[in-house]
């Protein structure tokens, strides 16, 4: 796991503990547009720490091996979710729905039901697509799954990035569109507020 932490975050007073946000990308493709968008997020709020939570090593969900801590990659995945304050999922849309690799990961994070890693965890959703609908259908399905797990998805705020090919430099793997950056920063700020609000629900 990789933790990205700013110098400014280290200067915060002890009573203002730095929040850590997990970043999950719902694509395994190395040059995924959504990975580029996710990589821009740590640049938007230097008061936060970020941890990448990868999905590539997770086996297909199988209840026969889902006992105890589960297989080693699953144990690491669940522990990564448990140690962050909230998770932002940045995912494409495949065939008008949720990518299989992400659904598989959410299934692993949903058990055991009473102590599931995502149960009660604040979650934000971001999606980017070369098309014009901005992963609307995918996010609806992701939200439905998260609500079944009883994760606390940021309400009332949505972040869709349409025509993403025009908004990034694919070779440099950077987000270049200032308007998208502005809205993404606003979304991250709302998500951080949601982490505190979600805690108050406990």
Characterise this structure.
- InterPro entries: Flavoprotein-like_sf, FMN_Rdtase-like_dom, NAD(P)H-dep_reductase.
- Belongs to the azoreductase type 2 family.
- The chain is an alpha/beta fold and 202 residues long.
- The protein has helices at 7-10, 33-40, 72-83, 100-108, 136-149, 178-200; strands at residues 2-5, 20-25, 49-52, 86-90, 122-128, 152-153, 159-161, 168-169, 174-175.
- The strands form two sheets. Strands 1, 2, 3, 4, 5, 6 and 7 form a seven-stranded mixed beta sheet that branches. Strands 8-9 form a two-stranded antiparallel ribbon.
- Helix 4 links the parallel strand 4 and strand 5 (122-128).
- Residues 5-15 have low confidence and may be disordered.
What key attributes describe this structure?
single chain, alpha/beta, Rossmann fold, 7-stranded mixed beta sheet, 6 helices, 35% helix, 17% strand, Flavoprotein-like_sf, NAD(P)H-dependent oxidoreductase, FMN_Rdtase-like_dom
